[in-house]
Amino acid sequence: MKKPCPRSSSTSYRRPSPVGTDLTSPATADALCATTFGPRWRMAEFHDGEGWSFWASDVLPTGTRCWTAINDQPANPWS
User: Please, what is the Cα angle at 67 between 63 and 70, to 5 degrees?
Assistant: First the structure.
């Protein structure tokens, strides 16, 4: 399983997905992306698209699951 770590409205890259218990805070998730891809990268956020959608450039195989954060609900691995 792989996880996107995009910049908002930009390119999505995937890395081997951590288990949810490894994502203990937004800072930890963002640091994982920054360590893997560079200092300007962060974890995807549910609202990175328009309203209730996520937009980024990438090709995900059908059935792929990934972690994304959401900033207005207690529905994150660290919540």
Answer: 125
User: Phi/psi zone of residue 62: left (φ > 0), alpha (ψ -120 to 50 degrees), beta?
Assistant: beta
- Mean pLDDT, the chain, as a whole number? 76
Predicted confidence at residue 59, as pLDDT, reads 67
Closest CA to 56 of 28, 78, 79, 37: 37
Q: Are 4 and 68 in contact (CB under 8 A)?
A: yes
Helices and strands (H, E) in the chain, number of each type: 1, 2
Q: Which residue has the higher pLDDT, 47 or 70?
A: 70
